[in-house]
Design brief:
Elements: E1 5-16, H1 21-29, E2 34-41, E3 56-62, E4 65-71, E5 82-89, H2 100-110, E6 115-126, H3 129-138, H4 148-163, E7 173-177, H5 178-183, H6 185-194, H7 244-252, H8 255-265
Parallel strand pairs: 1-5, 1-6, 2-5, 6-7
Antiparallel strand pairs: 2-3, 3-4
Helix pairs in contact: 4-8
């Protein structure tokens, strides 16, 4: 066999929906030249569990940025520098899809290699609850996330995994504070090191143009396609600061959420 592995790097980017994992994924993708990205894998015990199945998006990075193409072939293509797998939780189940290992073996076998990947990392993304809830309220496609108890429960489960109170994701695991990642280049350098990558920010300003009708951000859609750092992602909460029913009261109704949030993100913005 020429090659023992389908890909050198397998990187999972996991997080609750609207937590910023697509921005993290495209930043990670910027560390490579040829990447396959699988969007929207679901977690364990969700109603429609999916794993490494079509459609796949193949990206090439050049001096002009990303070029990409969607492919619905049943099996992943060989020859990618990395395969990035995005898992979106919608109910707080942190564990990965139980079909994942079966899918890995199938893709390796179909490409006549021994193993799916040489090296793996599992990223968990966590966003401040005030900015995540604001993003959820602005997102029209997934009404069920606006359920107060569902949001609180899911965020707490993710925060417990983030802080090490649980250990449900495989190792090596890298937890990313989305708010800090967005604003702090030194933190991004630290994260690249943890992921065993040579630091680059060349994927930082790209808004991912795939998934749910190529709509991009829930607030800005594709308006900031090549200028993602200009989006006011840390100020999303300001749009809802006077909404007691859907926003401020939700963030005040659970003591555990507030304690975990303050441990990770510091004090809540004044008024909430």
């Amino acid at each position: 066999m020429e090659n023992k592995y389908l890909t050198e790097r397998e990187i999972h980017v996991c997080g609750l929906q609207r937590t910023g994992q697509h921005a993290i994924a495209v930043w990670v993708m910027g560390h490579f030249d040829k990447i396959c990205f699988k969007n929207g894998m679901t977690s364990l015990n969700t109603p429609l569990p999916r794993s490494i199945t079509p459609p796949f998006w193949y990206f090439d990075l050049n001096k002009d940025g990303f070029t990409w193409a969607e492919n619905n072939d049943r099996v992943l293509k060989k020859g990618q520098d990395a395969i990035i797998l995005g898992t979106e939780y919608n109910s707080g189940n942190i564990e990965l899809n139980e079909d994942l290992n079966i899918n890995r073996k199938m893709h390796a076998k179909e490409n006549d290699v021994d193993e799916f990947s040489k090296k793996q990392h599992y990223i968990l993304v966590l966003r401040s609850p005030w900015n995540q809830l604001a993003s959820i309220l602005s997102w029209k496609e997934r009404w069920y996330l606006k359920n107060k108890e569902r949001f609180i429960s899911g965020w707490i489960k993710s925060a417990k995994e983030f802080t090490g109170r649980t250990n449900l994701l495989p190792e090596p695991k890298v937890c990313i504070n989305y708010d800090k990642w967005f604003s702090d280049v030194n933190y991004r350098k630290e994260l690249s090191n943890k992921l065993e990558l040579d630091f680059t920010d060349r994927g930082l300003n790209v808004v991912m143009p795939i998934g749910w009708g190529n709509k991009g951000s829930s607030f800005d859609r594709m308006d900031y396609t090549n200028n993602a750092q200009d989006m006011k992602v840390l100020d999303r909460w300001k749009k809802y600061k006077n909404d007691n029913v859907q926003f401020t009261d939700v963030l005040k109704m659970n003591k555990e959420l507030r304690e975990l949030s303050e441990e990770i993100f510091g004090e809540f913005p004044e008024g909430i």
